[in-house]
Amino acid sequence: MGRATLVAGDWGTSRLRLFLCDADGAAVDTIDGPGASEARDRFAKLFDSLLIDWMSQHGPLPAILCGMVGSSFGWSEAPYLPCPARPEQIAGACVSLRLGRVRIIPGLSCRNRLDAPDLMRGEETQILGALHLDPALRRGQHLLCLPGTHTKWVLLDEGSVREFLTATTGEMFALLSAHSVLVSDEPGRTGSTTITSDAAFSRGLTEHRRFPEASVLHRMFEARSRRLSRDLAAADTAAYLSGLMIASDVRGALELFAATGTVHIVGTAQLASLYAAALNSQGRDSRSIDGAAASLAGLLHVHRLLSRPVAMHGT
User: Fold this and answer.
1) Residue 269 and residue 180 share a domain
2) Is the pLDDT of residue 145 over 70?
3) pLDDT 10s digits, 235-245
């Protein structure tokens, strides 16, 4: 194990993940902690308490953090950097705390394809990590998909984040599954957001492809009507609904961006596989990059950019 030189952390709304990294960027230890929503008004105290053992073993270490730790209710607000934004600009806009010992990566903002303001916080670090893990993304134009509660569709242009579009697919699916009668007759008690049937999910993709022009709002009630008519098993309803919603998300994004080539998916293995299947059903190839690996790679990349020596010029 190499000597620890850095603490890197992804502090999301519901979860904190801290990595103790050596000089080569390898994570030699990890700590999980409460998310930003639970850490309100006590970020500094909580951060210090989690790092007691690491600091006792390795002494004071610099830290680089991303996510909701930089939100309006976070440790210190890191403003949204407008797009287009290059990695160097994102690193340069980091907020510095504790005399530079702690840095917080800013979010990004843009005017999206629908001429509306759009925002991201945390995903920009995954994008930076994807650029580092796959150097081919630094050349030409590429469409990225970062699936999650708020799925982000991102257009890269010569290594710069040119623009993006947010789809609330994950949030809407969770709400409809748990708090509507589409999936269960007892919402709030038996509704499930777990995809347990690949066949039912694929059926949702197929049904969307039969009538691609139909709005997803005209299709979602099928989850209930097919279940009640026994055309669909109750246990398969959530997967079917997910297929309809993700297929609609994918089709809308592909039409808006009109991007060609492989779509790069950055996220968890489960979500990446669902979006890959939806893209495949619409004739598009995809390549997946692990979201956690991308987050850590992005954090380390920003740290390296900030650690570059400043060139001195004679007068």
Assistant:
1) yes
2) yes
3) 999 999 999 99
pTM of the model: 0.93
Residue 110 main-chain phi, psi, to 5 deg: -160, 170
46 and 92 fall within a common domain: yes
Torsions phi, psi for 96 (to 5 deg):
-105, 130
CB 70, CB 105: distance < 8 Å = yes
Q: Are residue 185 and residue 268 in the same domain, yes or no?
A: yes
The tokens for 299 are 């954090």
- Report CA Rg, the chain: 21
CATH of the domain at 222: 3.30.420.310
Give the domain extent around 115: 4-137
Tell me how far apart the alpha carbons of residues 183 and 239 are, in angstroms, rounded to a whole number: 10
Examine the domain organization and report whether 15 and 124 are in the same domain: yes
Q: Based on the domain organization, do 185 and 247 belong to the same domain?
A: yes
Tens digits of residue pLDDT in 183-218: 988 877 544 566 767 999 999 999 999 999 999 999
Whether 49 is covered by a domain: the verdict is yes
Looking at the structure, tell me whether residues 128 and 178 fall in a common domain.
no
Unique residue bearing structure tokens 């495949």: 280
